[in-house]
Amino acid sequence: MNKKNTFIFTMMTFFILIVSFGRCSLFVLDESKQAIVTEFGRLVKTCIDPGVYFKVPFIQEVHFEKRVLNSDVSEVELTLGDQKRLIVDVFARYYISNPVLFFKSVYDVESASRRLKLIIMGDIRDILGKVSLQDLLTNKRAEIVSKIHKRVAKAVQVFGIGMMEVRIKKALLPSENYDAIFDRMRSDRTKEAQEWRGKAEEIYKTIVSEADLKASSIVENAKKQSEIIRGESDAKAIKLLQSAYRKDSKFSKFMLQLKSYEEVLDDKVGYYLSSKHPYFDLLNKYRGDSEHS
Q1: More confident call, 30 vs 283
Q2: Using one digit for the tens of pLDDT, what is the confidence trace for 128-168?
Q3: Please, what sign has the CA dihedral across residues 192, 193, 196, 202?
């Protein structure tokens, strides 16, 4: 019975040792990572493709690294080419292009991140120190960022690092510059508004002047046309009257006399004339006829 227990214990111990040895000897590499194997600090091999790999337990060490890494460089204060102060935040994405060179030059991700930040800060200050704030606010910004990316990518090649992108996340003016910038913007906008008002006033005056000229021309033409029409009408009326007078002079004289009475005699106006005045011959005649009758 004791021999059987001893055998079982021995087998279990052996199985545990095999499992432990296997776990210490094998490692799995997925698609999102790559690894290098070192032995007492000396590089032994690199593992890039996903799969299961072997290492010597307790002697060899595995360093896992992500394929794509991020780095943030925050609040870099610098002076632009137009002497304006600016605070920028930069975001970078990079990958380990050469694991062996990466291990020999910077050893690990923390060291690589520190070196990368120093390079980015230096290139940012150098490139932005030659451009103006206006350039960063226009379409030239993409060209500037591309130039920074190329400069940084070239500098980190010696560390076995490849750059995916370098991007300016945020660019802010120092708080003490806000008032000066806002005053300048306000002054520029006010000046621009005054120029537009002056142009609008000039256009308004031109339109009003042209409209007045056209209106005067139309009124003058209308008056001229009305005078012509009135003259033609008066001429026709005179012709008709002359024709009527020639046909019956007595009736014409009678009608003219009546019209004269209608225009001259008025209840509101008094005349001191003799009733036998020739002007009243027609009235006296008809009054005498009415009395005899």
Answers
A1: 30
A2: 989 988 888 888 888 999 999 999 999 999 998 999 999 98
A3: negative
pLDDT digits (tens, 9 = 90+) for 208-240: 888 888 988 898 888 888 888 888 887 887 787
The pLDDT, as a whole number, for residue 147 is: 93
Check if the beta carbon of residue 27 is closer than 8 Å to that of residue 53. yes
List CB contacts of 243: < 8 A, sequence separation 6 or more: none
Across 104-122, b (16+ Cβ under 10 Å) vs e yields ebbeebeebbebbbebbee
Query: Is the CA virtual torsion 209, 211, 217, 220 positive or negative?
Result: negative
- Which residue shows structure tokens 């139309």? 218
Q: What is the pLDDT of residues 40-78, one digit of tens each?
A: 666 666 666 665 666 656 554 555 566 688 888 888 888
- Average per-residue pLDDT for the chain: 77
Q: What is the DSSP string of the chain?
A: -HHHHHHHHHHHHHHHHHHHHHHHHEEEE-TTEEEEEEETTEEEEEE-SSEEEE--TTTEEEEEEESEEEEEEEEEEEE-TTS-EEEEEEEEEEEES-HHHHHHHT-SHHHHHHHHHHHHHHHHHHHHTTS-HHHHTSTHHHHHHHHHHHHHHHHHGGGTEEEEEEEEEEEE--GGGHHHHHHHHHHHHHHHHHHHHHHHHHHHHHHHHHHHHHHHHHHHHHHHHHHHHHHHHHHHHHHHHHHHHHH-HHHHHHHHHHHHHHHH--TT------TTSGGGHHHHHHHHHHHH-
Read off the pLDDT of each residue in 99-117 and give the average, rounded to a whole number: 86
